[in-house]
Amino acid sequence: MPTITTDDGVSLYYEETGSGSPIVFVHEFAGDHRCWEPQVRALSRRHRCITYGARGFPPSDVPPDASSYSQARACADIRCVLDGLGIDKAHIVGLSMGGFATLHFGLTYPERALSLLIAGCGYGAEKEQSTRFRGEADIIADRLRSQGMPKFAETYALGPTRVQLQNKDPRGWREFADQLAQHSAEGSANTQQGVQKERPSIFDLEEGMKKITVPTLIVTGDEDWPCLIPNVFMKRAIPSAALFVMPNTGHTLNIEEPDMFNRAIADFVAQVEAGRWPMRDPRATIEIITGAK
Question: What pTM, to 2 d.p., does this model score?
Fold first, then answer.
């Protein structure tokens, strides 16, 4: 079983397919390395596609203490994957929890990123939602430990931004829910309390985001309600960012609308590699409706 050992001694399972410029996929809380299968099948024809399980998500190690989990650690684990595979730079694609890690990777290790695709990123970021979100992380962790993963999965997979997947693709939703039920309750609870609960708000990262020059694509579904305002904020803050909104789409957008999502990645990466991804023209930020002075 292929694994990489992080600099704090945690073993991360990974898979790689294809050859060409590398794309590293960073999964969400309710997913794992398998959730990127539609992307790997499509994009490995031209790229070296790498998926891995975050710490706490078997077959990666499940450290027993929540102190082994953090937003900074999730970011550093991406670097460890690159280091372990001898990759200098890669396109980094992250969803939700993985989107936060991708954003922090761009803030912390910009020299290691060919591009950043930040999808479904924003849960709990709005200041008025912060206290509630942190409290929910503890509630979720308690339920995981008391109920176990299978019972938790049936409820969590029917959240208000995941029913869109069930309505469009009941078979795909069933596969998603079944895979979620196979996760480690301990690892998921520790992830909630170490990563989700303690991560900084996107709105506190504005000064750092203003300095990002790595080509960036922000992607959200228009029915992923907690992400809409944070995504517009990121678009405004990051001078190298474009915003792509997928219509009638919820949170699990890479498996809900795989063809649309794959085209977005492929077009974005092609523009980046052709040297055609622009920085924002400063004139576009002038706050005059008509442009007249």
Answer: 0.96
